[in-house]
Fold this protein.
Amino acid sequence: MAKKKDALTPEQRLQEALVPESEWPYKVPENWCWTHLGNYIDFATDYVANGSFASLKENVQIFKEKNYALMVKTQDFATGFTQSLTYTDKHGYDFLKKSVLFGGELILSNIGSVGKVFRVPYLEIPMTLASNSIMIKCYTDLDYDWIYYYLLSPLGNELLLSITTGTAVLKFNKTDLKTIPLPVIPRYEQQRIVDRIESLFVKLDEAKQKAQDVVDGFETRKAAILHKAFTGELTEKWRNLKLSINSKWIYKTLNETSIDIIDGDRGPNYPKKDEFSSEGYCVFLNTKNVTKQGFNFETVEFITAEKDAVLRKGKLVRDDIVLTTRGTIGNIAYYDESIPYNNMRINSGMVIYRHGNEFYKPYLIFLYKSDVVLNQIKKMQTGSAQPQLPIKIMKELQLPIPALEEQKEIVRILDDLLSKEQQAKEAAEAVLEQIDLIKKSILARAFRGELGTNDPTEESAVELLKEILEKEG
């Protein structure tokens, strides 16, 4: 029968705390050792450590408006502690004495978003732990630093998942948390590891911010390019060189152009839910099929040839344009020869633009994606719960119409510029993914002693573990 912990000698406690080499997750430098998290930290606690659910309900009153103490939730870290904060009063704070926070502690999400780790900020208000998380209390600030990075490392994440249970909702408890293996690192090496990680991360974060700026600015740059295209700025030099064409732009309302606007069949034969299938004769478009980027056929619904035959309006022919007019307004797509379906119909929340000899159709597609048209649509749309753009109002849209040759030049330039912008965005997104992988690699190497910072002549971490165990004693 194993001796009680209090009855063990210091040497016996040390041997009990050390993980046998055969059970190490991986080999570490000779002056490191392995223990379990619970042997090294001061304690781990959570909200329910303060009492039964009944006593918590009776003694802890929760407020949405500011009160005596902040109840720290893992969601608060995502908002920078600026939104949807939760508070309790002085009585609740005093009752939650086992989970009081002062700043610097580690908080782990242990229900739902398992694997997220946070450092508690230093705030000028009393703080206590909210539910659905575990707080780790360490003996020194440096311990918080390196254990934080360890838990974020690939091994740390893997170990947290290994103690997780549940299928619908993942969770782990503080008892199991204290059993996960932890490398014990000589004290000075801990600081060097933290310094090296943070030095490398600063450089990576700078690169990440630049890449993120490219991704975040994509829509803004795209909008600026489109605005220049449809205010004449993009082709100004081209016009000056093409003296043989009519360089003057004209402006017409949609109603004044030769475009025919056709809406869908809204009569008694409109397809019912049970008349759609995943295969069939005619594609019946829904809102998912007409996006800001054009047609999307990931999910397609069909109707039979018999149902198609009894419907009157709304059948597409090649060279038609589809515009959404209800719910999500202004999405536009071009039914050209590249579309693989020969039979397609619009639903009741769309219209067809047909003919329009004064327009090069790709020009019209780009025009409707620009603020020149989108700003007009925003002002014209009706309804709030479900916005709509009635045909009668739509006809008043003001459209810039350069010569057909210039329209084609505008499309050529836009295809080139927007393609380059898309490539830059995709390259920046690849950089962001690569930076995340590099960070994981740095953390993995850090806790294997592979960052080039370890001094093998330093005192063994076993001595540090002895000091920790004496504090516990």
About this structure: The longest strand covers residues 350-355. The mean pLDDT is 94. Residues 429 and 463 are 46 Å apart (CA to CA).
